[in-house]
Here is the input.
Amino acid sequence: MNPLQETVTVMMDAAPGSGEQTVTLPRRIGTVRIGDCIGRGGSGVVFAAYDEALKRSVAVKILHHLRGGARELDRGRLIDGVRNAARVRHEHLVGVHGVDLVGDIPVIVMEHVDGASLRDLLSARGRFDAETTLHLAREVCAGVDALHRENIVHRDLKPANVLIDRGGVARVCDFGLACEVGGTAMARSDATVAGSPLFMAPEVFEGVVSPQGDVNAMGVLLFEMFSGRVPFDGESIADVRDRHLHADPPIDALVGAGVSEELVELVGRCLNKQRIMRYKSAGHLLRALDEIPVRLRPDHLRARVADGINALGPTTKRSEEDRTPTPMAANTYDMLSARAAAKRKHKPE
Here is the structure.
C-alpha cells in the first residue's frame, strides 16, 4: 500500500496571523481511522472517522493555533477543559470520546452528528419565528445547563457550535475553550482572552469567566434567531469590544421583528452589561424560557426544525465560513485579514 494512503494532509494555521501551513498526520489514531474532511472553521478542521474497535462512526477535530512550544500551557488548558466537558453526558451535548496530542497538535474524537449547524440553518432562513426560536433556545440551554451544573463554562457559544441532526435535535459542541470554575462560579483567567467576539460578554474581554458569560452568549444567539443579525458588530475586535462595553442593545430590531414584550425583556436581561443583572446560569434562563407558552408541541417544533435541516441537502459539512470572527481572538489584524480573505473569495471574476 502506498504510505501516503495512510496519512492525511491538513491545511491549518500554525499560529494566529501566520497563514496556512500543510501538516501531515497519520490517518489512523489509535483505533480511529480518519476519512474525509466534513468541515472547517476558526478553530480547526473536522473529519468523518470510524472507530474500528467500537464499530461506530465518529468525528475527529484537529485543532490549529495551538502548535509550538510557546503554546504548551494553552494546549494543556485546552485538553483539561475538553476532558472536563467530556465527563458530562446529555442529549443536547455532542459526546466527546477522547482528546489527545498527535505530535504537538490537539485532536478531539467526538460523536458524529449527521446534520448541519444552526449557522447553516440561519444562513438559509435568515431568522426564525418565535416558537421555533424558543424551541431551539430551550434545547441549547438544556445542554449548557448540564455543563453549568458541573461548574463548567463553555465560553464559545454561537450558531456554528450548535449542531442539529436530521431528526431536529440540537446539540452543543466544540468544547475547546471550556473550563472549570470554582465554588464561586467565577474566575479571572490568566490565559489569553479567548472566544468569539460577537458573542462575548463585556467582562469576558477582561478575562472574567463565569456562567453569566454563557448566558450573555445565549442572549446574542436569541437576538440573531429573532432578528437575523447580531446586536453588536464592527470592523475590528476593538470596535466589537467597545460596543459590547458601551452601546445599548438595538432592541428596536426585536420590536420590529414582532417579538413580544416578554421575550424582548428576557433577551435584554441576558445582554445586560452588568454580569450580576443577568440570569445566574443557563438553568435559570431555561426556567424563564419554559414559562413562556407556545402553541405547538415540542415534537411538532422538532419536526419543523428537522424539515429545515433536511431541506439543506444531503451534505453533512458544516459551514466553511462562520460569520463570527475566529474563536481565538488574537488581535485586530487577524479579524480584518479573515474578512478581507472572505471578500476576495466571493469577489466576481
Notes: The chain has ten helices and 15 strands. The longest strand covers residues 32-40. Residues 3-112 form a domain with the Phosphorylase Kinase; domain 1 fold (CATH 3.30.200.20). Residues 130-148 form the longest helix (19 residues).
